[in-house]
């Protein structure tokens, strides 16, 4: 019996049509990609696999991502492969290591696919990693990235935000994510370890606080973590003069309205003190001659920067505790990290990409 | 070298009148023909490619050929006909009481006899041919001898230019009747019907002139062939109409054939276009179903790198180097940890 042999038509196409740059921000809550073909995509960092044959048949696919995975989560084994900014399976936790590894690989592959690369183009990607990710965390990202792209580099997430804004000197970056809040001091060179602080008071912390407060003040209300997250993203604010926040939650199956204005504001304000603590540490350890300059150039980025009034609130706290300060929020908080990573990818010389292939 | 009969030098020794003498006699003959109302025909007879023969076989051979031709002509014409050489070229002859038809017959006879003039070269025979130009005047016409001879010479040139070994009858081209298109002076009201009628009349005149020319050509052709011109009479228009009808029928047939082919091609094209559209729709559907995405091309064909003239160029260059160095180190540690895990598995 003859066996089919792979002919020339089965080989991968020659990549000689161009170079596609990708800037990827792998976030605990959301992952974003920006590409040099104009494509951009952002989706929740969720990956779901059908639980059984029936759900696979109903869903019609082997894997779902993002909002679709969240919507169909009852039929899926749902994974959130990133935690505190790094891949779960790289944190040394043995729980569902294989599942998380598979999910992280599929997540990154899907993000590359959403950038719509051509088959005949080289793909060079820069991926943002948390400022204080260890080597194991970084290697894990590199390992899964190498299967999706031709050449890959990692860089610090807050650094990529600053690079994307072309603010390379005397700038303090606050990148508020879901798992971590990264602070980075830029002073005209590559930031070192001492220039970067990471704390775990971020979006997920706010969700936890909000859940506690609602449970405390409205014990009858029934809610899920996903509902809390959605409420937060819709109504998050620290401004005093905001409208009342009234939401509907079931009580024993019956919908009821709840005023959660104070709970939301309290939960959102809870991240401010750790941020200002970090700012104080970075400013205080800086050259005294340039501390004022640094205080007045604070860049607010990340999903958490969308909390209404947060920039003003941080400024007030800085005035109270540090004697002054000015906070600027970047225009596209969801794509700030991806845009900056894309810019780094574009500026990286050709020979560096070749050596890392 | 071919052998020729011995040449006799000088035209006087050929036994003919000189050109001047004959010319004078011809003038008298011309007046006589007009006075007494009889036809007169002039011919110019020449040997084809005489100069080339002279170049090939020598100057003496030219004299020999001309002498032989003179002998042939003398033996072929009547006592009343006039014949004289024209310098060193063709012979001129005048035939009283000879109309165009008779002249054509004489020309044919001379051509045939001329072909029989063969000169032995030794290994092969050299045959000469003649070109003859004929011009004639019928009874009652007024003309000058010079005009008649001029016409005969032109006819001879035509015969010679057409390849020789033939005769040509001079046919005067009718002067085209001037087509006068009179357009009424534009006034307050332009009579379109009147303009059309005037233009139509002018075109009719043009058509009649062309028909007259065609008739003359046909007549000359029949006379050249020595045939009597049939009397088409009123059938001339019918003949022309028949010819036009045949041409139109042939044209219609070709046009119909082309239209059939064009129609066939159009139908094929429509069919192919429909097939293409269906195929493209199906392809789009399958691609959508299989989520096949051809992708969007990057705006960059090559690796870019830093803008050398950009702001903070040096600072950014340092930063790129630092990022690269860190990644290279990371890659090294990754490879070494991979190697260690493989060793552990073994």
Gist of the model:
The complex is a heterodimer of chains A (about 350) and B (about 350). Chain A is about 40% helix and about 25% strand.
How would you portray this structure in words?
The complex is a heterodimer of chains A (357) and B (346). By secondary structure, chain A is an alpha/beta fold. Chain A has helices at 53-59, 66-71, 97-114, 135-145, 157-164, 203-217, 225-235, 261-269, 272-284, 291-295, 310-322, 336-347, 350-355; strands at residues 18-26, 30-35, 40-44, 47-50, 64-65, 76-79, 82-83, 86-87, 121-129, 151-156, 169-176, 181-187, 196-199, 246-251, 254-259, 298-301, 327-329. Chain A has a five-stranded mixed sheet. Chain A has a five-stranded mixed sheet with strand order 13-12-11-16-17, sandwiched between helices. In chain A, helix 11 (310-322) links the parallel strand 16 and strand 17 (327-329). Chain A is built from 13 helices and 17 strands. Chain A is flat and about 60 Å long. In chain B, the strands form two sheets. Chain B has a five-stranded mixed sheet with strand order 2-3-1-6-7, sandwiched between helices. In chain B, strands 4-5 form a two-stranded antiparallel ribbon. Chain B is elongated, with a radius of gyration of 45 Å. Chain B contains eight helices and seven strands, in the order H-E-H-H-E-E-H-E-E-E-H-E-H-H-H. In chain B, 19% of the residues are buried. Chain B has 346 residues and is an alpha+beta fold. Chain B has helices spanning 19-36, 50-57, 59-76, 100-115, 145-161, 192-224, 235-289, 313-345; strands at 40-47, 82-85, 91-96, 118-120, 125-127, 130-137, 166-169. The termini of chain B are far apart. Helix content of chain B is 57%, strand content 10%. The chains are: A alpha/beta (357), B alpha+beta (346). The A-B interface holds A 17-21, 35-39, 113, 116-119, 121, 124, 135, 138-139, 142-143, 153-155, 163, 166, 168-169, 188-190, 344, 346-350, 352-353, 355-356 and B 293-307, 311-312, 315-316, 318-320, 322-324, 326-328, 330-331, 333-334, 337.
């Amino acid at each position: 019996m003859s066996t089919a042999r792979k002919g020339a038509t089965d080989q991968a196409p020659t990549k000689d049509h161009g170079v596609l740059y990708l800037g990827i921000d792998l976030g605990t809550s959301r992952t974003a990609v920006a590409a040099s073909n104009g494509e951009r995509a952002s989706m929740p960092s969720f990956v779901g696999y059908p639980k059984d044959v029936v759900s696979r048949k109903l869903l019609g696919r082997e894997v779902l991502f993002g909002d679709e995975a969240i919507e169909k989560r009852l039929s899926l084994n749902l994974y959130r492969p990133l935690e505190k900014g790094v891949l779960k399976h790289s944190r040394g936790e043995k729980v569902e290591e294989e599942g998380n590894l598979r999910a992280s690989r599929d997540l990154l592959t899907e993000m590359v696919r959403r950038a719509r690369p051509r088959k005949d183009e080289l793909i060079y990607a820069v991926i943002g990693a948390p400022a204080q990710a260890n080597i194991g965390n970084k290697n894990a990202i590199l390992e899964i990235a190498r299967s999706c792209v031709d050449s890959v580099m990692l860089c610090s997430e807050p650094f990529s935000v600053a690079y994307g804004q072309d603010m390379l000197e005397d700038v303090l970056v606050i990148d508020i994510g879901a798992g971590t809040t990264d602070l980075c001091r830029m002073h005209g060179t590559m930031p070192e370890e001492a220039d970067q602080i990471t704390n775990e008071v971020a979006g997920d912390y706010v969700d936890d606080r909000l859940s506690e407060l609602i449970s405390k003040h409205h014990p009858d209300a029934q809610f899920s973590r996903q509902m809390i997250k959605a409420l937060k993203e819709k109504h998050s604010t620290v401004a005093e003069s905001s409208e009342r926040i009234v939401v509907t939650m079931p009580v024993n199956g019956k919908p009821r309205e709840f005023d959660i204005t104070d709970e939301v504001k309290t939960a959102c304000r809870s991240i401010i003190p750790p941020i200002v603590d970090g700012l104080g540490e970075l400013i205080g350890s800086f050259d005294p001659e340039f501390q004022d300059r640094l205080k007045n150039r604070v860049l607010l980025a990340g999903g958490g920067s969308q909390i209404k009034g947060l920039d003003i609130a941080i400024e007030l706290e800085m005035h109270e505790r540090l004697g002054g300060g000015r906070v600027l929020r970047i225009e596209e908080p969801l794509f700030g990290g991806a845009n900056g990573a894309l810019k780094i990818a574009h500026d990286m010389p050709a020979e560096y990409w070749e050596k890392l292939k | 070298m071919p052998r020729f009969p011995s040449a006799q030098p000088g035209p006087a020794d050929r036994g003919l009148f000189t050109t001047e003498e004959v010319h004078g006699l011809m003038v008298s003959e011309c007046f006589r023909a007009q006075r007494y109302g009889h036809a007169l025909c002039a011919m110019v007879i020449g040997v084809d490619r005489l100069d080339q023969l002279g170049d090939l076989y020598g100057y003496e051979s030219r004299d020999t050929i001309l002498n032989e031709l003179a002998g042939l002509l003398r033996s072929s014409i009547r006592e009343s006909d006039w014949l004289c050489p024209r310098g060193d070229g063709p012979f001129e002859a005048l035939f009283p009481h000879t109309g165009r038809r008779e002249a054509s017959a004489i020309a044919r006879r001379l051509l045939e006899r001329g072909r029989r003039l063969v000169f032995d070269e030794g290994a092969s025979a050299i045959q000469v041919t003649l070109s003859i130009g004929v011009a004639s005047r019928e009874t009652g016409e007024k003309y000058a001898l010079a005009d008649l001879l001029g016409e005969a010479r032109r006819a001879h040139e035509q015969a010679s230019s057409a390849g020789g070994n033939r005769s040509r009858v001079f046919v005067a081209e009718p002067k085209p009747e001037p087509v006068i298109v009179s357009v009424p002076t534009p006034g307050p009201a332009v009579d379109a019907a009147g303009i059309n009628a005037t233009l139509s009349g002018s075109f009719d005149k043009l058509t009649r002139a062309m028909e007259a020319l065609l008739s003359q050509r046909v007549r000359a052709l029949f006379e050249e062939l020595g045939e009597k011109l049939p009397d088409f009479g009123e059938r001339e228009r019918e003949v022309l109409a028949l010819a036009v009808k045949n041409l139109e029928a042939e044209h219609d047939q070709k046009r119909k054939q082309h239209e059939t082919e064009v129609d066939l091609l159009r139908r094929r094209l429509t069919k192919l276009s429909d097939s293409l559209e269906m195929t493209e729709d199906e392809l789009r559907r399958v691609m959508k179903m299989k989520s096949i995405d051809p992708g969007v091309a990057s705006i960059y064909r090559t690796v870019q790198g830093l803008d050398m003239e950009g702001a903070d160029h040096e600072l950014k260059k340092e930063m790129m180097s630092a990022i690269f160095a860190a990644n290279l180190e990371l890659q090294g540690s990754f490879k070494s940890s991979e190697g260690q895990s493989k060793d552990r598995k073994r």
